[in-house]
Design a protein that fits this description.
Layout (H helix, E strand, L loop, with lengths): L1 E6 L11 H14 L6 E6 L2 E7 L10 E2 L5 H13 L9 H5 L7 H4 L3 H5 L12 H5 L13 H9 L15 H15 L3 H10 L35 H4 L2 E2 L1 H9 L13 H8 L3 E3 L5 E3 L4 E3 L6 E7 L4 E7 L4 E7 L9 H12 L1
Antiparallel strand pairs: 1-3, 2-3, 2-11, 4-5, 6-7, 7-8, 8-9, 9-10, 10-11
Helix pairs in contact: 1-13, 2-9, 2-12, 7-8
């Protein structure tokens, strides 16, 4: 069972009549989801509401593994570097990563924009990833595929499709982007993300490495799992963060929020801007880094993530100033209600 907590940040609006209703909606959603250590955190026009299990206060909550919900951090980093004039979205990745190295013509055509928008033509993971990962598939599939191997796999790749012509979700591509940004700036990935995104936004409880303060993931049968080791795929899935930090990150994306000096307003505008369409009838759009779906009260931007033993959902609705971060310490199945329930909470109920 979870308990709602009302928290008023320093910049919050006066208490509105909707606070109690939001707390009730969060409690109802939490009862729908059968998952350990469930947290649902909501910000509405700067006012925060939490539903947490075990009587934990928001400032006591552990860090959770974001998995693929790390990608919006990578996308914002790219946008920040572009807004600062240090890179361009159309810069060729291979030339930044390994100048002069011979590559396939399609690889030579892959830009930074292609990598972050999943339009590079690269597969979800390198072909030689699977043989080494299978013996550790349920515990540490990425751990023995380091950064240099990701880079080598990219430089010898033969993309399935011409860059920019098809959308295909790729952890490989976003990981290559991380290594490319590090090479182009001469700064290790973790330091680059910390300097350009995490520290400027005040995300001091957000990390890229495991620590004793992290939540422990579980198999479906309840057995605990070791902390995620992302190997050379950090940019695609290594972020760990607390619920308050995640709300701070999402709030910074809302147009009505006080604009941070860094990353710049231009960077946040870039990651909110629709770029491409896909899905049935091309009804769903994508921004630089967010899935963007229509709703009755304006578009919703979101990204889900899963690790071996944890699940994550991040989303915001710019038109209403609403943001939601939800997480639990069990890898849920597609038929489980975690994602549909939280998505509905953001799109239809809050």
């Amino acid at each position: 069972m979870t308990a709602p907590h009302e928290v008023r940040p320093a910049r919050a609006d006066p208490v509105s009549r909707g606070d109690g209703e939001r707390a009730r909606l969060l409690a109802d959603a939490a009862r729908t989801i059968d998952a350990p250590d469930l947290v649902i955190a909501v910000s509405h026009r700067g006012r925060r509401t939490y539903s947490l299990g075990g009587g934990v206060r928001p400032d006591e909550a552990p860090r959770y593994e974001l998995g693929s919900a790390s990608k919006p951090f990578t996308g914002l980093l790219l946008a920040a570097l572009v807004a600062a004039g240090r890179l361009r979205y159309e810069d060729p990745a291979a030339e930044l990563l390994a100048p002069g190295h011979p590559v396939h013509p399609s690889v030579r055509a892959i830009t930074l924009r292609h990598l972050i928008t999943h339009t590079s033509g690269l597969p979800a993971l390198p072909a030689d990833f699977y043989p080494q990962a299978l013996p550790r598939w349920s515990t540490a599939p990425y751990s023995r595929y380091p950064a240099d191997r990701v880079v080598r796999a990219f430089l010898r790749a033969r993309p399935r499709h011409r860059p920019g012509t098809r959308w295909h979700y790729s952890n490989f591509a976003v990981s290559v982007l991380g290594h490319t940004l590090a090479a182009a700036t001469g700064t290790p990935w973790e330091s680059l993300l910390r300097t350009e995104v995490l520290d400027p936004l005040g995300l001091h409880d957000t990390r890229l490495r495991p620590s004793p303060l992290d939540a422990v993931g579980h198999r479906r049968d309840g057995r605990p799992l070791p902390a995620l080791d992302t190997g050379g795929f950090d940019a695609a899935g290594a972020v760990r963060a607390t619920p308050p930090d995640l709300l701070t990150f999402l709030e910074a994306h809302l147009p009505a929020a006080p604009a941070p000096t860094h990353p710049s307003a231009a960077a946040f505008a870039d990651v909110r801007q629709p770029l491409l369409r896909r899905g049935l009838g091309h009804a769903h759009t994508h921004t630089l880094t967010w899935f963007r779906h229509p709703s009755a009260r304006g578009p919703v931007c979101f990204h889900a993530g899963a690790t071996l033993g944890q699940q994550m959902f991040l989303g915001f609705r710019p038109d209403t100033g609403t943001a939601v971060a939800a997480m639990c310490t069990r890898r849920v199945h597609r038929t489980d209600p975690f994602i549909p329930t939280v998505h509905e909470l953001l799109t239809e109920k809050l």
